[in-house]
Specification:
Helix 2 crosses helix 5. The chain has one domain: P-loop containing nucleotide triphosphate hydrolases (Rossmann fold, 3-Layer(aba) Sandwich). By secondary structure, it is an alpha/beta fold.
Length: about 200
């Protein structure tokens, strides 16, 4: 529990499993959601971060407008675990400060706080959660979504997943499993049921 006395829910799952959609459902039901990926993306535009990255990798990871090119950064860090760790050590503390600020500013009537972070378990953020929810989605569905929505080839998906904890391990560490195998209505019903058990045990 946070100092507001609100339960903290962590969302985990495979790449392309629908974690952001689940987070949006929690938000619509009265939760404050901290989206770690969105915050990290915003942090890349901070002057101090851009200067640090330029010192590491030069101008080749910037686009023509002077912004950090996330695709070029991804190509670099997912091919080199040490570079990935260096980038995470830069961004993670900034993301955590922003998350704490978001949670501290939770409006009256908020029923729970949600951490939507791709590396929830890998970064040890589950230690800050009262409950962890795993979004379980078939591999073929996730792969199709990533190919259609992000243009990733199967090799790119495999490369990124290799940097994360195995899905079986993530599933085993979760308190609840959401089966994202059917339609939106079914997923919504599962989210509502799980939230009910968390906020009104």
């Amino acid at each position: 529990m946070t100092r507001q006395g609100l339960p903290v829910i962590g969302i985990t799952g495979g790449i392309g499993s629908g974690k952001s959609r689940v987070a949006a459902m929690f938000r619509e039901l009265g939760c404050v959601v901290s989206d770690a990926d969105a915050v990290a993306k915003a942090m890349l535009d901070e002057d101090s971060v851009r200067a640090t990255i330029a010192g590491w990798w030069g101008d080749e990871v910037f686009d023509e407008t002077g912004h950090v090119d996330r695709a070029k950064v991804a190509d670099r860090v997912f091919a080199n675990p040490e570079e990935l760790q260096r980038l995470e050590s830069l961004l993670h503390p900034m993301v955590e400060r922003m998350r704490n600020a978001e949670f501290d500013a939770a409006p009256e009537g908020t029923i729970a706080l949600v951490i939507d972070a791709p590396l929830l378990l890998e970064a040890g953020l589950d230690e800050q959660c009262d409950v962890v929810v795993f979004v379980d989605t078939p591999a073929e569905v996730r792969q199709r979504r990533l190919m259609e929505n992000r243009g990733w080839a199967a090799e790119e998906i495999g490369r990124r997943e290799a940097q994360q904890m195995p899905l079986d391990s993530k599933r085993s560490r979760a308190h609840h499993v959401l089966k994202n195998h059917g339609g939106i209505d079914d997923l919504q019903s599962q989210v509502e049921r799980i939230l009910e058990t968390i906020v009104r045990p």
